[in-house]
Design a protein that fits this description.
Blueprint (H helix, E strand, L loop, with lengths): L14 E6 L2 H6 L4 H6 L3 H7 L3 E6 L10 H10 L10 E4 L8 E4 L4 E6 L2 E8 L13 H19 L3 E6 L2 E6 L13 H15 L2 H6 L5 E7 L6 H12 L2 E4 L8 H9 L5 E5 L9 H12 L6 E7 L7 H4 L6 E4 L5 H12 L7 H9 L5 H8 L8 H29 L1 H13 L1 H11 L1
Parallel strand pairs: 7-10, 9-12, 9-13, 10-11, 11-12
Antiparallel strand pairs: 1-2, 1-6, 3-4, 5-6, 7-8
The structure holds adenosine-5'-triphosphate (ATP).
Length: 436
């Protein structure tokens, strides 16, 4: 499929040239004035002709390989789809997720940067010698390079690595989760997105303070609250690969070191269910800390646990891991995201009832999502919401019974009883009947 956003993804010519000029001059001078004036000498041209033209070759003349600047420009122009060229070329690009369209030779695209209008054109033939200006070209090209490389990163095919012993193998990572579809408190969500973005752009900062460019997150919360979903959303947000490190198949520190040194930059290293591992988390962190200096580039390391209370206190104290994120039971705000995802609903007359019930129950987003997922093609949103209301009412009743048990038999008696309720609902019914 051809993607509109990739319209300018390929300049598709032997050479790309960039022309820019202050917009107001463009109104007073014909485009070919430069050629005319050039006949009368460079000095006169520089004095009268307001355009500056810079050419970027597709191939590096010394090494005969494709220029990185050229491909960053291609990526940058791929977002300038608002100014469509009339003649396009289709290209298949290695490592990119879709076929892209680019402008044909001698087509033009306009851009604006800090109030200056610029024209990009693709040409087959070599253009005349470039003249440079310090005024904006440095900053503009820096901007094009930065944006172009970021776009390339977002578009690249990403990978999910898993280890079997000391060997990484990978599949293409195509998890659809995004922060938009993640059900959680919107303020907390925005804070995490900002934190990730700040980290991904902080190379200079980390360098200036003499620290490795890495950040550690701890995600904790009951099963089904979205820890794995958040990891996928993080990787999609940043355009990073994921390394899912299975610690149980790593025999010793030498193996761990080998695996970690093989991870690439712009990656997210995940260690799930750390509370179930033989390795202590603080031991692992000490080891990793010593290792990072050998790794170039940025890495995020994410630990997950269902039982934060089991983790070493030395680890959970501030400063050991950069960010602790609790994923919790479904709130009404989180429910609204799920209703939007699954039922395309912004409001419904059952929403106030659901809001009240969620306030009185501990239900994880995975269970709410399960009820919102239509069971048949014809199942309506009304039925899904009614099923959810029924399930929440039942959960509320269970909660009341547990509180009662807790009063009678103490906390631990009630907890073991709660464990039974998830699989043996009939026992609750029996208890209820016995009470009546
Ligand atoms: N916060 C959430 N937002 C959106 N979907 C969610 C969320 N939490 C759970 N889900 C849904 O429930 C499914 C299971 O959630 P997920 O695996 O992310 O939970 P988890 O906390 O990682 O669980 P576990 O601790 O058992 O690994 C997901 O595939 C997703 O469909």
């Amino acid at each position: 499929m051809l993607k509109m956003g990739d319209m300018w993804g390929q300049l598709g010519s032997v050479m790309a040239s960039m022309m820019f000029a202050y917009a107001m001059f463009k109104q007073f001078f014909p485009d070919n004035l430069g050629d005319i004036l050039e006949k009368y000498g460079q000095k006169l041209v520089a004095y009268v002709y307001p355009y500056i033209q810079i050419t970027f070759d597709e191939y590096d003349s010394d090494f005969y390989r494709r220029s990185e600047v050229y491909s960053a420009i291609q990526n940058y122009l791929s977002t300038k789809s608002s100014t469509l060229a009339k003649r396009l070329k289709a290209h298949e690009v290695k490592g990119s997720k879709a076929l892209v369209l680019g402008m044909d030779d001698n087509e033009e695209v306009t851009d604006e940067f800090e109030g200056v209008k610029l024209w990009w054109a693709s040409k087959k033939s070599a253009t005349k010698k470039a003249s440079f200006s310090d005024l904006i070209i440095g900053r503009y090209i820096e901007h094009v390079m930065k944006e172009g490389n970021a776009i390339k990163l977002r578009n690249r095919e990403r990978k999910l690595y898993t280890n079997n012993g000391v060997r990484w193998s990978h599949v293409v990572f195509e998890h659809p989760a995004t922060f938009q579809t993640l059900a959680m408190d919107p303020v907390k969500k925005q804070e995490i997105m900002d934190d990730l973005m700040t980290f991904s752009k902080a190379e200079e900062f980390y360098k200036s303070i003499g620290r490795a460019w890495k950040r550690g997150y701890l995600l904790y919360g009951p099963p089904g609250t979205g820890k794995s979903t958040m990891i996928a959303a993080m990787a999609n947000h940043l355009g990073y690969n994921i390394y899912d490190l299975e610690l149980t198949s790593v025999k010793n520190n030498t193996e761990l070191r080998k695996l970690l040194l093989e991870t690439s930059n712009k990656s997210l290293i995940v260690i799930e269910d750390i509370d179930c591992s033989q390795v202590t988390l603080s031991g692992l962190l000490n080891f990793i800390d010593g290792l990072w200096s050998a790794c170039k580039g940025e890495r995020l390391i994410v630990f997950t646990t269902n039982h934060v209370e089991k983790l070493d206190a030395a680890l959970t104290r501030k400063g050991r891991l950069d960010k602790h994120i609790e994923l919790s039971y479904c709130t009404f705000e989180a429910f609204k995201v799920l209703a939007r995802n699954y039922l395309k609903l912004e409001s419904h007359h059952l929403f106030p009832t659901i809001c009240e019930l969620l306030g009185k129950t501990n239900v994880v987003p995975a269970d709410v999502a399960e009820h919102l997922m239509p069971k048949t093609l014809s199942q309506s949103a009304d039925i899904c919401l009614q099923n959810l209301v029924q399930a929440l009412k039942k959960e509320k009743e269970n909660g009341k019974l547990i509180a009662e048990e807790e009063r009678k038999y103490g906390k631990y008696g009630a907890i073991s009883w709660k464990c039974m309720t998830s699989t043996q609902d009939h026992l609750i019914e029996d208890k209820k009947r016995a009470k009546n």
